Amino acid sequence: xxxxxxxxxxxxxxxxxxxxxxxxxxxxxxxxxxxxxxxxxxxxxxxxxxxxxxxxxxxxxxxxxxxxxxxxxxxxxxxxxxxxxxxxxxxxxxxxxxxxxxxxxxxxxxxxxxxxxxxxxxxxxxxxxxxxxxxxxxxxxxxxxxxxxxxxxxxxxxxxxxxxxxxxxxxxxxxxxxxxxxxxxxxxxxxxxxxxxxxxxxxxxxxxxxxxxxxxxxxxxxxxxxxxxxxxxxxxxxxxxxxxxxxxxxxxxxxxxxxxxxxxxxxxxxxxxxxxxxxxxxxxxxxxxxxxxxxxxxxxxxxxxxxxxxxxxxxxxxxxxxxxxxxxxxxxxxxxxxxxxxxxxxxxxxxxxxxxxxx
Length: 359
What we know:
It catalyses: L-cysteine + L-glutamate + ATP = gamma-L-glutamyl-L-cysteine + ADP + phosphate + H(+). This protein has 359 residues and is an alpha+beta fold. The protein is built from 13 helices and 13 strands.
């Protein structure tokens, strides 16, 4: 498994997003972290860190913490701060796009929809034996992607206002073609044919630019799950990785037993995703396999029961239980942001800076 974390850069004084990505990435690249890769994102206010391949949570946690420490130090040297949140808290100037033909093509297709786009996520990669199995796993993941969102909500504010959502990032990305819960696919060939058609129809820049919350990686032999908002803390990134790995292990077991995933309706998935983004773990969710309303926390409990054998197999059960209890006690990232907002939105950014850099 491996994790890619996207971060925002904010000015040290104003706490508003600041386009210093090229300078920060140049500094970070000089660090002696051979396992970690630092890279640019769509706009110059964002940076990304990708771990190497990890086989246990302890190794993953160390690499995530090292990457954050390195990027935070590089940011400080450039007069900015590193923040892990799904969407900017304070209003600011429109972020410039990073240079390059790929980013220019995306901006040309999406036009005003992508202007000011600064959302950040936590992407989990889990190795799978082949692409055919990856698509089968993708189908099994679909009903649980909204619950992964509910667990990770960390973007309640949108450029100076409370959006009313736990994850405004999900709402922003819903505007893009190829967003949300992916369709059900009968095979890898069907998946590839659909992507090719989307590119041919002019709605995607290329096959790498879908915004689906899960997909077979276009570059790696993995399934890539992108449901989570940028994780407020290292622990929350580790939790998302552990749960996703267990979901993938569970799905592989189902497929080995000849049990294909039920093709849950796409519109129902959209509604369930909206509910998860709106309420996080504090309200109602939608049970996609049974097509009924239920408490979001009950959905999380059912998910954890479902993946318990896989968590035991990977040795992650105790860690996951402890981290879920921690969120139950302190609240999701979105809940903590709203508590900090009692003292003003700058206080929210201050808290995010501290959380992001905490090992």
